[in-house]
Design a protein that fits this description.
This protein is an alpha/beta fold. 36% of the residues lie in helices and 18% in strands. It is built from eight helices and eight strands, in the order βαβαββαβααβαβαβα. The protein is globular, with a radius of gyration of 17 Å. The two termini are 27 Å apart.
Length: 220
């Protein structure tokens, strides 16, 4: 089996840690997290990346979730293995004791990663600044977060999320969206299972040239 990992930049550190834990060394192709803001653009990015895979690859391990429709009707001439979760946040919230396609709670926004590659409020704002001028970016940003009242740091053991500097930065992000800061448990279990080949009911194993659909992620 000639395998490659397709990883969103947001989860790159997690994929690398999973490979270290499981003793694998599959090559990794990155998907730029900036496209997450618009799933249609991420879908185009995915299709373009899949079309450029090396000819000898027969299996693609996908380190992301459905992500707002980014994988809708995507097909590939190789076998795709995808965690059966709604998005990258739900993936990191999964623990050995707790799994569901979407573990996120209404009104909660989640932080994970070291701030440079991980998901953050500031990263969303920066992506809006790439598309709009500052005034419009502020308007869109406020609309995006108006229904969020909690900012939760996902503690998955991959980094010190209790470090004072990290917490202070997270607190500033919480204040930016007028939310309370808290901690919730998470893990790297899905990515460890992905790279080690332990593909149970928490994964989609999609045959070559078979379209991926939203129903596959939630029909458990």
């Amino acid at each position: 089996m000639n395998t490659i990992i397709l990883s969103c930049t947001t989860l790159l550190d997690y994929v690398q840690q999973a490979q270290l834990t499981c003793g694998t060394a599959f090559p990794i192709m990155e998907l730029d997290r900036q496209y997450h803001v618009e799933p249609a653009r991420m879908r185009e990015h995915i299709l373009e990346t899949l079309s450029g895979l090396p000819a000898d690859i027969d299996t693609v391990l996908v380190a992301m979730g459905f992500c707002g429709g980014s994988w809708q009707d995507v097909s590939c001439s190789r076998t795709l293995v995808i965690p059966r979760v709604s998005d990258c946040v739900a993936l990191t919230l999964t623990t050995p004791e707790r799994y569901a396609p979407d573990l996120k709670e209404p009104g909660h926004m989640y932080l994970f990663g070291d701030g440079d590659t991980g998901f953050s409020v500031d990263a969303i704002y920066d992506s809006l600044l790439e598309k709009y001028d500052r005034e419009m970016a502020d308007i869109v940003f406020d609309m995006y977060f108006e229904h969020y009242h909690h900012l939760d740091i996902i503690d998955n053991g991959l980094y010190d999320c209790y470090d004072l500097a990290y917490v202070e930065r997270a607190q500033k992000e919480a204040e930016k969206i007028h939310s309370e800061l808290d901690f919730v448990p998470g893990s790297n279990i899905l990515l460890e299972k992905l790279v080690s080949g332990k593909w149970d009911s928490q994964f989609l194993v999609v045959s070559p040239d078979t379209p991926v659909t939203q129903g596959l992620f939630y029909d458990c």
